[in-house]
Specification:
By secondary structure, the first copy, chain A, is an alpha/beta fold. Chain A contains 10 helices and 17 strands. Chain A has 2 domains: 3-132, NAD(P)-binding Rossmann-like Domain (Rossmann fold, 3-Layer(aba) Sandwich), CATH 3.40.50; 134-348 and 353-367, Dihydrodipicolinate Reductase, domain 2 (2-Layer Sandwich), CATH 3.30.360.10.
Amino acid sequence: METVRVGLVGAGFMGKIHTLAYRNAAMLFGSAIPVVDPVVVADFDPVLADRAVRDWGWSRTAATWQEVTAADDVDVIDICTPNDTHVAIALDALEHGKHVLCEKPLALDAHDAHRLCEAARSTDRLTQVGFVYRQWPAVVMARRLIDEGAIGDVRTARARFLLDYNSDPDVAMSWRFDRARAGSGALGDIGSHCIDLLQYLVGPISEVTARMQTFVDRRRRVDGAVADVTVDDQTEILAHFESGASGTILASWAATGHKCDLGFELIGSRGSVRFGWEQSNELQFYDGDDPADRLGFRTILLGPTHPGADDIHTVAGQGLGYNDAFVIAARNTLRDLAAGTTGSIPTFVDGLRVAEVVDAVIEAAAGGSVVPVTRRAL
Amino acid sequence: METVRVGLVGAGFMGKIHTLAYRNAAMLFGSAIPVVDPVVVADFDPVLADRAVRDWGWSRTAATWQEVTAADDVDVIDICTPNDTHVAIALDALEHGKHVLCEKPLALDAHDAHRLCEAARSTDRLTQVGFVYRQWPAVVMARRLIDEGAIGDVRTARARFLLDYNSDPDVAMSWRFDRARAGSGALGDIGSHCIDLLQYLVGPISEVTARMQTFVDRRRRVDGAVADVTVDDQTEILAHFESGASGTILASWAATGHKCDLGFELIGSRGSVRFGWEQSNELQFYDGDDPADRLGFRTILLGPTHPGADDIHTVAGQGLGYNDAFVIAARNTLRDLAAGTTGSIPTFVDGLRVAEVVDAVIEAAAGGSVVPVTRRAL
Amino acid sequence: METVRVGLVGAGFMGKIHTLAYRNAAMLFGSAIPVVDPVVVADFDPVLADRAVRDWGWSRTAATWQEVTAADDVDVIDICTPNDTHVAIALDALEHGKHVLCEKPLALDAHDAHRLCEAARSTDRLTQVGFVYRQWPAVVMARRLIDEGAIGDVRTARARFLLDYNSDPDVAMSWRFDRARAGSGALGDIGSHCIDLLQYLVGPISEVTARMQTFVDRRRRVDGAVADVTVDDQTEILAHFESGASGTILASWAATGHKCDLGFELIGSRGSVRFGWEQSNELQFYDGDDPADRLGFRTILLGPTHPGADDIHTVAGQGLGYNDAFVIAARNTLRDLAAGTTGSIPTFVDGLRVAEVVDAVIEAAAGGSVVPVTRRAL
Amino acid sequence: METVRVGLVGAGFMGKIHTLAYRNAAMLFGSAIPVVDPVVVADFDPVLADRAVRDWGWSRTAATWQEVTAADDVDVIDICTPNDTHVAIALDALEHGKHVLCEKPLALDAHDAHRLCEAARSTDRLTQVGFVYRQWPAVVMARRLIDEGAIGDVRTARARFLLDYNSDPDVAMSWRFDRARAGSGALGDIGSHCIDLLQYLVGPISEVTARMQTFVDRRRRVDGAVADVTVDDQTEILAHFESGASGTILASWAATGHKCDLGFELIGSRGSVRFGWEQSNELQFYDGDDPADRLGFRTILLGPTHPGADDIHTVAGQGLGYNDAFVIAARNTLRDLAAGTTGSIPTFVDGLRVAEVVDAVIEAAAGGSVVPVTRRAL
């Protein structure tokens, strides 16, 4: 596969980021990855689809997403629409024999995520869910350290994703605050990244207890009407892993002072590793085998010697940003498409594994006791 | 009260720190506080008691702690013995009409802590439990910020106390690893500081869920025999507060890479405040009312303008250390003794309030569900 | 000017970064800036020029740079070639009535830089020199703080650019280590960024003393021959500013442990501000007017409320990287081209003002005494 | 020498700190060091001397410092008086056969410092100058790393001591702002610590260029009269070392936002090490021999495995403060007195070596060119 023909559904903020990533990947990696052909784009708002053609280089618009998923001249469907539309689009894309890239969360619950996985399993199509952070160089390097045994057995895992853009009670009501359309609030929107990261690094979570809080329980719509917020502003989780490790997860979009504070720490029997997005080009690593008088967390500035973006950096510390995260993900996708494997990208199965934890968390928060994570067979 | 006559029980590490604190307080604060007269000292090991007289300035030894609590020429009993001896000594001291300072934890469980509070309540004696961290300048400043409304309502509270000196499986078995003598492990030893800090800053914890882990479950005694470790190496807690806030607490003495990592963060509706002992002379404060383009956590270096140690610092950032924490606590104790009040020190009641949470945590960890904290009347 | 037709000279690393920037700017800013038409590209190595057409979207190659500067269908010449070729290309471009963007350093010395400025002055063409860091959001925000008086009069200025990629004596000899081709070493390559930043923020440097050091004085060429290194590995400068401020500059590309450590601190009579590239999305600001018990450097995470990239960020702390620096510079260039002004970009005159300081530094280092910076009239 | 009989001259702030240090050292180190007998104290202000007897444990007061230096029952004279009185007292003490500890700066210039060294050389008395920071654990550890070759050859040295307590123009005129009494301003008061640290770690400074600035040039005395400030608020130095290293020193007591910011960085051919007092319990170390993907500055929390305070710490990161710096210095003094050597303390010769640099800096700042440091024979 030398050229990948893409159909994009959803031309808002995330559609733009994906488009940028395809274009940059083509330039940065040249012949190492397939060429992207941006064939067709649809959006519920036709103005956005038109903009994508005019300003972003897409070849044509489609009137409906169904036209995109059915298009004969498209290999991959890229889904950047609101959460509650993912399942229908992805199922249809699979039925039309397309590869499917879907933004997270894959579905509103594990039941639907499982349906998608079942549908995908009967094909040889590549699937991906948009967990970009596990593909970030510092995270890939953390995984390398774990795989090499550099921190020993992980005993304790802590993750957080804290932002404060919804601290303000004047933020307008939207579908994100509506459980029917979003599934959950901070939990699904940002906590899902924490869950994916920890499962990627430590393995499956086996049981959880949790508390969910809503700090602003009514918000005004843009049309002036007041509506109930039916999702969590914050979710706190005690998690147990199959490996025996335990940990905590804290997700909040009302955490005053925290701007983009995704992070984790893994404490092992021999060493520890920690990361925070607000210093996203650093990884902190403690090597318990260092000489006794030289023990200490070292701050590794990511660069060309590290996995995940060794083909982007020229010197360490130069700095990658948010947009680069999507360039890296696009490179991985295109590389996997060329190879016909899913070696480096999170697939629908990973999306399901997160959704199963999310379901357990919601149940645990409601019931006040430990809930085992139900794993669905595939 | 111009002179405070002290009897010390326990002349090990903590007895030494207390002695140093009395001496330094006398010099640093001069006539602002009573003079300490170090009258009598006892230890289970008479060699240690002798050393306290020879090297530390105590006037005489006593053969038993009972001689100390009964001594007519003593006003205050300072208890620095292993956890399981606190209750008997403190009760006897109170019965002899002494003021009592007791190292933490006050007792092995809330039942015994309550007995002590009951005993104290019937007297006018001053009691204190050794929670030094809440008296630390940065913590007192955090409390001031909360009291002034600078962070609004606390929504989220996070605390941790992480050390790694028991990561090593070769650390010998001792009473600290024996539930019968220690009550619990990391939970009571260091988690209790987190609980006290959060209750001091956010108010009473009302319910908890928890997980306790033992990473090294057998240790060799110094005599060569192998024994079971019956306490936790790590305890993780989800806590709910009466105020409506929620939070997490993580206590571990096997957290590889963490040397003395006591810390907390309080996230409020208007601002946030955070602290870590490894940078103990700093407090981080986020003021949500700052101009939009100047929002950010500021790093306050503690100094003469801050409460708690304004009479110690000459310039900010000069730096106070661990020993100073006990000097500050001694100053507070002596000041309160002079005033006949307990305005600035944590009393036995605070010790009970922590013990009640510890009991609930142990129960929650065993049962896997939310446990309300049982509060005893006083 | 709705479309800007660009001719690129130099299709190596920097040519790639510029190309990426044009493409991303077009997508990110849409109709707010002119469209870029990548017309023609030349390189001394025709393979690189071909790659630029094949992979990067340039329309055609030219056999020589002279074909590019003379092309009728080009408005702007973008110069990304080695240092010693800048002057000839830029002069020719100006003679052909083109706007000129030139990577730094503008010329090997102030004499040649002045010739360029003279040539540019007689036209109405826009000129730019590639000082991207002064266009970086945190730096623009620092300038805003200074302009608003938030730090009072700048008394002390410190800047550094430290890297260690030439610490290794096995790095091969290249034109960068040859004074005849590079002008100077760390001084011109990276120290020039420090000089530009400080002059942008504090005003003209009026006199300097300096020390230059070469740590590795012989290097092996790729052909095996050994050659003398004739430039500095490190330059240290004491600078005095016209404003009365004084400061230090340290530039080294052999600073073991420092990966991309560009930074500065400005200490003023009312406040201070500091920045380091390794945390490039942060700006630290100390406001001396804060309440006495709340004084401290605050860490501002750059985002949509800050100048310079308010049209890129969606939330603060999301993170911009090295490539984004060039996107921002491209946006500024295109915006200025559309407006016909040079409001937000560093022009050839800024390049000259840096070159004059560089000349003075070299003279001061040779002579061991204070050297005034000679300013050329324009 | 089992007991050291001390006479103290100067019972102000520094006399108090020294007294506290003697007392704490006695308790902390027990029989490992001699017992201190606080025999006699004098101060120009008799009220202060009386306080030292009443509150600090000194046995008697003397009416004049001459009584102290002449006292038969005293072994050591400890000088804590203003700078311009050091020489006379120290000379007299040496003439009376006493060991002498003198606060820094040893003298107002190198000429007088040399006289003291000459006087001391003819005796076998131990001398000490109060450079406490070089005895601080993190600094001693830095020295160990250098001695072990862990950072290779030091190429670049940077030191700073920045405070802002004299930024305020309302700070009253005092002897510290008067060149005749203080010798210099920030240079001698705090810059001297930087010079001592760098000479301790990198070796003798051989030549300097410098700039001195006075930001507040007139101050009001407490009696209301206005006087000229005749010393520097800030001194910036370019220094060259005999070893071939070069470096910068910045000393300012008007550096807005900096509270107690003493620090240094040493960049070597194999590694680097850096330290800042505001995180005084940490040392940062970069080991260039780490594996390529694990390179990074590690943050070492000082503790029992580190030299300098291995007999104080019980766990790393517990934290030492400013007062502990003097306890450590007192321990070193007492240990050296017992051994009859000067293995671990800075002596008058070290004080001279700093004064020689200070003289050269003043000359360089006045003349605007490089000044070699004149070294006096001993």
